[in-house]
Amino acid sequence: xxxxxxxxxxxxxxxxxxxxxxxxxxxxxxxxxxxxxxxxxxxxxxxxxxxxxxxxxxxxxxxxxxxxxxxxxxxxxxxxxxxxxxxxxxxxxxxxxxxxxxxxxxxxxxxxxxxxxxxx
Length: 120
Prior knowledge:
Layout: E1 2-7, E2 10-13, E3 18-26, E4 28-39, E5 45-51, E6 57-59, E7 67-72, E8 77-82, E9 91-101, E10 105-110, E11 114-119
Parallel strand pairs: 2-11
Antiparallel strand pairs: 1-3, 3-8, 4-5, 4-9, 5-6, 7-8, 9-10, 9-11
């Protein structure tokens, strides 16, 4: 079993920056793809950015050039650096990890989310 915990959310003014972190822990062999998704009130959960174990990235068009995803494999951690934040970036941000766990095998895990609020 693996656990996924996000941190780093908060309140920021438009134009500001935040860095989100997501740590994967538990009895795991390896982590494949890691990514960030977000869900605004009344909307569906959408992809923000993903990063594969080989280093390939994919970003939502709305965040390209402003957000950067990175990972520290030694720490089982993925980051999302968010710059030039806009009010429309306000959402709960969720981390997702594709994990090879010792008992559960290969499975995707979600964190509980961290709230990002961007004021105008």
